[in-house]
Model the fold of this input.
Amino acid sequence: MAFDVFLQHLTNGISLGSLYALVAIGYTMVYGILRLINFAHGDIFMMATYFTFYSIVIFGVPWYAAFLAVIVVTGALGVILEASAYRPLRDAPRISIMISAIGASFLLENLAIVIFGGRPKAFPALDFFTEVIKLGTVSIQRLTFIIPVMTLVLLYVLLYLINNTKSGMAMRAVSKDFETSRLMGIDVNRTISVTFFLGSMLAAVGGIMWGMKFPQIQPLMGVMPGVKCFIAAVIGGIGNIQGAVLGGFILGLVEILLIAFLPDLTGYRDAFAFILLIIVLLFRPTGIMGEKIAEKV
Done:
């Protein structure tokens, strides 16, 4: 394979991996505190793309204002989801809250079909992001460079918030022990809401970037990316934020480079993610950066 073609695939893999990483962080943050897989996370990602579409195309909001508004609104949607579907079941058996998460996922998908329609829509093309940059003989969209940079910047900001703010310290305390955190005066409900807000905001950023990179949106578009981002979180070590980012990059690179070197297997592209997941679970069940954690009861 010529070097310029390899470089093209490499940048695409890094870009895709960055998108997986953004959404995987939300999975791993919620799991780190609640030991819950938020199955509706991929659908929150989907809702963000529709919010952006209607803000720009229907209401004519400038893209930069639309992006900021959608990120905040999607964060609020995550908080509402947690308060309505998860908080009432916090003391219920683990299977109950898991069923509630699956139900919330189906609710968002069908709500999107009813409100937005089932027909795919074209995500608005923005010249600033779609402009093609020439690197020798390689042509790469500006968006391909923006996505990894944005992912790393947001990772730094998130780690700073978790390690250097009161809310972040509260999140770390709640992830260790609910009851002890309450005795220390921590508002557990507020802390969990902040976690869902931040995770959903990152899903919104991922959804916006995904819509620009793959400009066709429809109500079930969050299902497969959501599954893959969960796989990325498991590969990196679910519960570990840096691990989620690492898992996202690994999954994106493996997926793109494998079909680049083995184009006959392009139709099995999604299967590579599940094969990689099985391999990781067989040889390192806790993920690359994960640690064994005692189950909460």
